[in-house]
Write a structure and sequence with these properties.
The protein is built from 15 helices and 18 strands. It is of the alpha/beta class. Strands 1, 2, 3, 4, 5, 6, 7, 16, 17 and 18 form a 10-stranded mixed β-sheet that branches. It has a 5-stranded parallel β-sheet with strand order 11-12-13-14-15. The longest helix has 19 residues. It is globular. The relative contact order is 0.18.
Length: 491
């Protein structure tokens, strides 16, 4: 089974766009002539708009200058518009990832080789996500400046890629080679280096990530933290994420006091930004809610604890959204076969917590918590495929939602409009409505019949333009290393 999942994933990603694409004047090849079209009409499809409204059959969608300007059965066909015939197909909003990571972790000596190219890795990741139908990713932890560079290049149209919203560093954590992230686990034994050059490289890379809001803040009082956060929120980030508790699952420490957490939330809200908290325990969950956060990151993962009833009630009363990374059954089966029974027990409990959150009406947002797959992480070969791959993980998340009994229409909302509302960007994205940015997936099969039908991608449209999926990634950096480690040569 070694590398089988990666092989399947990459085969699926290579699937060509198939369909009929015509203009009012002449027939064209799929996608041809549409990349820069200012006016596009999609005709004859079933529109499932992501709001929870019942599907609209035989509808057309008019797109002008990147936004939806009309939806209905009698949409006017502007002269010179390009047309996609979607008869028998299904239109849904572009999928979103509420908690993804465009950069990657790995061994320090390997990451150092890519130090000046981190933004290129972010772009490559965003292109794999877009290829899989994810038109928007909220990057919840990573190096701020390279991520901003990637975001701006994508926004400017210099390169294709999923739309990125950036948090930068998790406030309170140091970089990827600090004690906040390097800890022994059942997956990998960490040994501290004594090589002076590597130590210097570690420190430099840590600073690229931490950006002045790292672990030293934990030792400060609320009024010492306030000006630091007030300055950080001016640095072109899209929202704020902070650590309510530690990252190491073996430890259960609280990071910031309730007073400091409230200050972080207050300063971010003053700047008009949403705030989310990294939590790993029931108490850190409660503290973050009391601090006034808008979003709880991976909120079903609270150690080996069931979801507290009082926390759910508070989330409902205060309209707190929760991102959930979903693990389908086959992933848990893979871990069982590899002997990680303890880890599987935790995943089963987390899945149960997600089910409880859904059944109690908490605002859920689908997340993958994934980054680009790479052979540089230092994991044993048998674990290389267990963690999944960005551009594929959202399909698994949709399947996992189905497995816990989420209704088909709610699955779509959890992966689209719920995320846009949770991040307060639903004015522009998240559903197929007049005035919104035209991020649209055309599917061959009805996603409301079964979650696996989300894989039946016919066409991906972002910002009103058809995406050439076959061309992605345009300038690979990490993915060429896959073949060198052998995944494509194994069954």
């Amino acid at each position: 089974m070694k590398h089988l999942l990666l092989h399947i994933s990459r085969t699926a990603l290579r699937k060509p766009i198939v369909g009929i694409v015509t203009s009012l004047c002449m027939a064209t090849l799929p996608g041809a002539g549409l990349a820069h079209a200012e006016t596009l009409v999609i005709t004859g499809g079933t529109v499932i708009d992501g709001t929870g409204t019942a599907p609209f059959e035989n509808y057309s969608v008019l797109i002008e200058n990147g936004r939806i300007t009309a939806i209905g059965q009698d949409v006017e066909m502007p002269e010179g518009a390009s047309i996609i015939d979607a008869t028998g197909k299904f239109l849904i909003p572009g999928l979103m990832d509420a908690n993804g990571h465009m950069t990657f972790l790995g061994l320090v000596e390997e990451i150092a080789k890519f130090e000046g190219r981190i933004h290129e890795i972010a772009i490559e990741s965003a292109q794999f996500a877009l290829k899989g139908g994810v038109t928007t990713v909220f990057d919840t932890a990573g190096p701020r400046e390279p991520l901003i560079k990637a975001r701006e290049m994508i926004n400017a149209g210099e390169v294709p890629g999923s739309r990125l919203y950036i948090a930068g560093n998790i406030i309170g954590f140091d970089g990827p080679f600090s004690d906040d992230f390097l800890y022994d686990s059942e997956y990998i034994d960490v040994e501290s280096t004594t090589d002076p050059k590597l130590l210097e490289t570690q420190a430099r890379l840590n600073e690229i990530w931490s950006q002045g809001v790292g672990n030293y803040l934990v030792g400060l009082g609320p009024e010492e933290v306030r000006p630091i956060i007030a300055e950080y929120v001016k640095k072109d980030i899209d929202y704020v994420k902070y650590a309510s508790s530690v990252h190491d699952p073996a430890k259960k420490f609280i990071m910031f006091s309730p007073r400091v957490q409230r200050v972080i939330v207050e300063e971010a809200h003053k700047a008009g930004l949403t705030v989310q908290a990294h939590i790993t325990t029931p108490e850190s969950l409660d503290m973050a809610i009391e601090a006034g956060v808008d979003i709880i990151t991976h909120g079903a993962i609270i150690g080996h604890h069931s979801m507290p009833e009082d926390a759910m009630q508070k989330m409902l009363e205060r309209s707190v959204a929760v991102s959930v990374n979903m693990a389908p059954q086959f992933r848990r089966d893979m871990l069982k076969k590899l002997g990680f029974d303890h880890g599987v027990e935790g995943l089963e409990l987390h899945q149960s917590n997600r089910k409880v959150l859904y059944e109690n009406g908490v605002h859920l947002m689908m997340a993958t918590d994934q980054n680009i797959k790479n052979p540089l992480l230092g994991l044993p070969p048998e674990l290389q495929d267990v963690n999944g791959q960005i551009g594929e993980g959202h399909f698994e998340g949709l399947l996992a939602l189905e497995e816990i009994g989420v209704k088909p229409m709610d699955i779509l909302k959890i992966a689209t409009s719920n995320i846009a509302k949770g991040y307060k960007v639903d004015k522009d994205i998240g559903s197929l409505e007049v005035g919104k940015i035209a991020d649209i997936l055309i599917l061959e099969k009805n996603p409301l019949e079964k979650a696996d039908n989300y894989r039946s991608l016919h066409t991906v449209i972002k910002d009103g333009k058809v995406v050439d999926r076959d061309a992605l990634p345009t300038a690979p950096v990490i993915s060429p290393l896959w073949s060198s480690s052998g995944p494509e040569d194994s069954d």
